[in-house]
Amino acid sequence: MSVHFTVNCDSAIFRLNIRLLHRRTLWLLQQNKVAEHSISILLVDDEEISWLNSNYRNKTGATNVLSFPLDDGNDPLSVVNSIGIKELGDIIISVETARREAKNLNVSLHDSLTWLLTHGLLHLLGYDHERSKKEAHKMWDLENKLIKQLHNSRSNQMTQLAINVDHVATVRNARGINEPDPVAAAAICELAGASGIVVHLREDRRHINDRDVRLLRETIKTRMNLEMGANKKIIEIALALKPDMVTLVPEKRQELTTEGGLNVSGQKKKLARTINLMNKSGIPVSLFIDPEAKQVKAAHAIGATYVELHTGRYCDAENETIQEEEYQMIASAAEEAYQMGLRVNAGHGLDYQTTAKIAALDTIEELSIGHAIIARAVFVGLDQAVREMGKIVRDASMIF
Ligand code: PXP
User: Fold this and answer.
1) pTM confidence score
2) What is the DSSP string of 232-280?
3) Are residues 284 and 325 in the same domain?
């Protein structure tokens, strides 16, 4: 499948997000079961579309969209070009007209362009509203249905960035005084665009402590994700605190950080009991697991709301081949979890190089990132470090 965009208008003036349009076009091709076909999309101004309109359709003036099937008269799905690729043809859109229409309808330019892409694609697939009233209704109905589905679809959801502020507490605790304060850090992260704050209340309280979680619960404006081991005392604290969600992780005192995912299949009863307790208090539970089908299935079976896929092996891979293999494991575990109805987060070890590829997975809802952001904050400040990571996540999941 390939989608070729050519921009013959000033994309900076129109502030076009071609990656977003590209992603939406791929989605439209998939929905119409022509994912293996190629399509060319040309974005022009009114002058160019008027010229095309007059030369190819004998009509004067600008229009919003023109569709040119590769081979008129044949079955549009069977046209193969000279190098053996199945091609649907060309869609030409005037961004200038699309912008005017967007203004009139009070929608965004990209939504207006998406509507025109859908309309143009249906023409390439053989639908034609000019043929008869019946055909027109058929085409409009399908168009509306696709647009509605697209708006609810995962390709339209942006990956969120939640920030783990444990390391701020680690620095504070190294001096045994009260700064830097993870509570202040959380506020800065939120002001810089974080969509959630994560803290791990460890049994040994090596970084985040009881005072921190209490104050964070009162001050976090976005969402508080409490990471914790399924340990009796910590469970009691979580039930009293009522964070927005908890993430259950394996916890060993001797480890530097959470080293592997939970073995869910090996401790189903214990984890199911904890999930049950949390759910009764209205707290959704995420299970931090390695990206493996067995763990995804077990998490689903015991009633988790989310899984958080461990990205550590992908981030620490020694070479590109291993990294690609690890990435594929994350992608397929995420797909499997998503298809089962689990919500999917990911994290651990993600940095300014490794994040984009994971954020681009449309099955993943939120990334949990700590060390890389706090490490960069030492040099550029926390606000900037968060904004830079936010941009990477946003650009990769390309939503506006
Ligand atoms: N997710 C979980 C479950 C973790 O335990 C951690 C580490 O505290 C993270 C995400 C964040 O990892 P990092 O600090 O390497 O970004």
Assistant:
1) 0.73
2) HHHHHHHHHH--SEEEE----TT-SS--S---TGGGHHHHHHHHHHHHH
3) yes
